[in-house]
Amino acid sequence: MKSYDAQYIRLPQLSSLTLGGGPLCSRHRSVAKGCALLLGFLCFSWLIYASRVYLFSQQRESNSVISGCEGCSTSVSISISSSSSPDGVAENTKTTTQRDELEMQTLGNRKSAGADASAEKTYAVLQRLVNGAESTRRTGTPHQKLLFNDRHDLDLDLDEGSDDSAEKSEEQKQEKSQVKQFFFFNPRPGARDWADFDDCDEDRICAMTSSVEDADVVLFNAARMKHVESLPKRRSNQIWVMYSREPPDLPSMDALDRPDLQNQVNYSRMVYSDSTWPVLYGVLEQMASPPEKDYENIFQGKRYDVAWFVSHCDRPSKRMEYVRRMMSTIDVHIYGECGNWTCGDRGYTMGGQKDECLEKLSQEYKFYLSFENTLCRDYVSEKFFNIFEGVDVIPVVRGGADYRKLFPSDILVDANDFPSPESLGTYLHFLGQDETAYIKMLRNKNGYKKGRYKTNFFCDLCERAHTGEPRHVYKDFYKWVRAPGNCWKPKDLDPL
Ligand SMILES: *[C@@H]1O[C@H](CO)[C@@H](O)[C@H](O)[C@H]1NC(C)=O
Ligand SMILES: *[C@@H]1O[C@H](CO)[C@@H](O)[C@H](O)[C@H]1NC(C)=O
C-alpha cells in the first residue's frame, strides 16, 4: 500500500458538475461513455444524500471513480491512491494489481458565472491529467504526485517515453504546466504548510506538490534555515521565496548568512516594508461611528497609571531596563513573567486569562505599554493592535517603526519623542492627571479599531509563478535582512 502525507490545495470554485463534465466528455470521446455513466451516478448520489457520498466502482485492473458531491453545487473531489496487491507482491512486477480511486473536490460556493467557467476549466485540466496518469500508470514508472485538496492527492506518472503514446505524454506535460506547484521546504513543525488559493484568479491554477524538484515555487522559513544543511537542487525557473513573521534581528536568522543562498532568493515575505509582501500584524481602521461612551465615568474608574503585560524580560530593546527607570517617575504595574502583578488566576499569558486581563486594563488603567522586544524598522507586533479591540486605554509605544507615519499621532504616546524613560514617565503622569486632555486622546483612540490585514500573498505568488514576472533576485539576502540601520540598539537608555 502506498500512502502519502496529506497536503492541501483549494481549486477555484467548481459549482456544477454538469458544467465540468460536459466539455470534458466532448473533448475526450474515449471517456465519454464513462462520463455519462459518471454523471448518472452523481445525480443519483445527489438525490439520495444531502452530504458527501462515495460512489465506488471496482474493477480488477485500474479504474476510476468520481465521487462525492454535496448537492452538486459545492463539492466534487478527486484523489488517486495506488496499492499493490493484497498479498504483498512487489510493486515492480507485472503481477501487481492496482486499484485506483479517483476523487476530485473543490470547496466553496458558487460565486459567479465566471467561476463556473473557470471551474469547468480546472476540472477539465485535472481530468485530463488523471486520464494521462491512468494511461501511463501501467508501465510501472515512478509517480509524481500533485496534491489537490484536503487529504486527497493526485498521483501522476509523467515519465516520457511511455509506450502508450508520446503524443499523449506531451499533451499531458502541457496540461501539467498549467498547474503551478508550491512546496514548503522547512516549515515550522505544526505550522501550516499549505497555501490557500481560494480567492485567486480563476485562470491561474496553483496546487501544493510533494516533490521539491517539480515545484515551481519553493517557500523557505527564514527563521529556520539553521536546520537546513543543503539547499534543494534548483530547477530552472523555480521561484524561491523567504518568509518569516519574526523580527529580523532574531539570532536564528544568522543562518541566512551562507554562500549558497546568494543570488537565489527571488522574493520575500518579511516584516520590512520593502519586502515583496510585507508582513503586517494588523491595521487600524477608522470607525464610521465610534461607540458612545461615558468618558468621565471611565476616567473616574481608572485607579492606576500604567500597566505592562510582558513575558520575556531580557530582550534586545532592553525594555525591562527602560521600564525600571520609568518607575522612578510613574507607577508601572508589571504583569506576567517579569513582574509581581497578576490578573485572572494565572496572570497574563497569551491564551491564558487574556480577556480578564484586558478587562482589568480597560477599567483600571490609563496607559498601556506596547513596547516591542526589538527595535527594527517597520516592526509593530500584535502588542499594539490588541488594545484596539474595545479596550479603554491609551497605548504608549516604543519600537523601531515610524509610528507617526503609520498611525494618527493623537491616539498614542511614542517613547521616541522623549529623551529618557524618566521624562516619558513624567509626561504620562501629567497627562494622566489632565482629565480633559486624557479623555480627548482616549476618545480619538477609540475612533479606531483593529482591522484584519488581508494579504494577497499566495494569489500574487501564484500569478508570478504563471507569468514569471517581475523578475527579481536578492544578491545577498542575508545582507538585505541585516543591513545596518534595519535594527538597532536602544538609544534612549544613556545615563542621565
Ligand atoms: C517584585 O517584588 C520583589 C519583592 O518585593 C521586588 O524585589 C521586585 O523588585 C519586584 N519586581 C518588580 C518587577 O517590581
Ligand atoms: C529567480 O532567481 C533565479 C536565480 O537567480 C533566476 O534565474 C530567475 O530568473 C528568478 N526568477 C524570477 C521570477 O525572478
UniProtKB/TrEMBL annotation:
Its main location: Golgi. It comes from Elysia crispata (lettuce slug). Residues 80-115, 134-178 are annotated as: Disordered. GO terms for molecular function: fucosyltransferase activity. Its EC number is 2.4.1.-. GO terms for cellular component: Golgi cisterna membrane; Golgi membrane. Pathway: Protein modification; protein glycosylation. This is Fucosyltransferase. It is a single-pass type II membrane protein.
